[in-house]
Design a protein that fits this description.
- One of its GO terms (molecular function) is ATP binding.
- It comes from Aliiruegeria haliotis.
- The chain is 48% helix and 17% strand.
- The protein has 9 helices and 5 strands; from the N terminus they run E-E-E-H-E-E-H-H-H-H-H-H-H-H.
- The chain has a 5-stranded mixed beta barrel with strand order 1-2-3-5-4.
- Strand 4 and strand 5 form a beta hairpin.
- The radius of gyration is 19 Å and the shape is globular.
- It starts with a strand and ends with a helix.
- The relative contact order is 0.10.
Length: 223
C-alpha cells in the first residue's frame, strides 16, 4: 500500500497531479481544494495517498493531511459515495468543513457538493456523525498539513514500549486538541474553553475524541 509520496510536481491537471518521485511519475487524483493548495510545477510537494485497486483500475488519491485522508476513507464507506463523490465533498468543504457539517448534523452543507443529492447527504450525516469527534481530534494531534521540508520524526526507542507522556502533559495536550477542534467548528474561545474544562473535570481520563463529544453536548442549545 502506498501511503505517502514526496517528490517534484511535474504536471497539474484539472483533477490530478503528476508527481515525480525518484524518477517515477505517479498520477495522483486530488480534490479542487487540495489542487489549489499544491505548489506550481517544478516545486516539491508531499501527499498522503490512498490506493484504489480494482480488476481494471489502479488509482491513487492524494490528501494534504491525515485528517483529510481519514474523511475520504469514511466517506467512501457510505453506500452511494465513491471516490469521485468523496473528493467532491472534500473539495467543497475541506476536512474541517466536513467535521463541522457532520458534528452539527448539517446535511445541506454536504449536499452542496456536485453530484450529491439530499438523500445521499442525509445518509452521510446519519452514518458518520458519531465518528466526527474522533476525526476532529486528528486535526490537533496528527492531522495538520504535511510540511515538505519536515525532517523525519524520531522513532521510539522500543516498538513494544513507546514512551508515555506524564499525566499532566497528556491532559494539556487533550485540552489543546479539543479547543483547536471546537475552534474549527466556529465556537468562541471562551465558551469552548469552559465546555472543555467542564468535560475534563467530569472525566479527567477521557481521550480527545470523548472530550470533544462531551463538550459538544454541553454547547448544544438547550430546550
Amino acid at each position: 500500500m502506498i501511503g505517502r509520496l514526496a517528490g517534484r510536481v511535474d504536471y497539474r491537471g484539472t483533477d490530478h497531479v503528476l508527481l515525480d518521485v525518484g524518477g517515477v511519475g505517479y498520477i495522483i487524483f486530488v480534490s479542487d481544494r487540495t489542487l489549489m493548495s499544491l505548489p506550481a510545477a517544478g516545486e516539491f510537494a508531499v501527499l498522503y495517498t490512498d490506493l484504489v485497486v480494482r480488476e481494471d483500475l489502479l488509482q491513487l488519491y492524494g490528501f494534504l493531511s491525515l485528517q483529510e485522508k481519514e474523511w475520504h476513507r469514511l466517506l467512501t464507506s457510505v453506500q452511494g459515495i465513491g471516490a469521485k463523490a468523496s473528493m467532491a465533498i472534500l473539495g467543497v468543504l475541506g476536512p474541517d468543513g466536513v467535521s463541522r457539517a457532520l458534528a452539527l448534523g448539517d446535511w445541506s452543507a454536504v449536499k452542496a457538493a456536485p453530484g450529491v443529492g439530499p438523500k445521499l447527504a442525509q445518509r452521510v450525516v446519519n452514518e458518520l456523525k458519531d465518528k466526527a469527534p474522533a476525526v476532529m481530534a486528528m486535526s490537533g494531534a496528527m492531522g495538520g498539513v504535511v510540511e515538505p521540508t519536515q525532517a523525519p520524526e524520531a522513532t521510539a526507542t522500543s516498538a513494544n514500549a513507546p514512551a508515555r507522556a506524564p499525566a499532566s502533559t497528556a491532559v494539556a495536550t487533550t485540552q489543546a486538541d479539543a479547543l483547536s477542534a471546537l475552534g474549527n467548528l466556529g465556537y468562541q474561545q471562551g465558551e469552548a474553553a469552559a465546555a472543555v474544562a467542564q468535560a475534563l473535570g467530569e472525566d479527567p481520563d477521557a481521550d480527545t475524541a470523548t472530550v470533544i463529544r462531551n463538550a459538544l453536548k454541553l454547547l448544544a442549545p438547550k430546550g
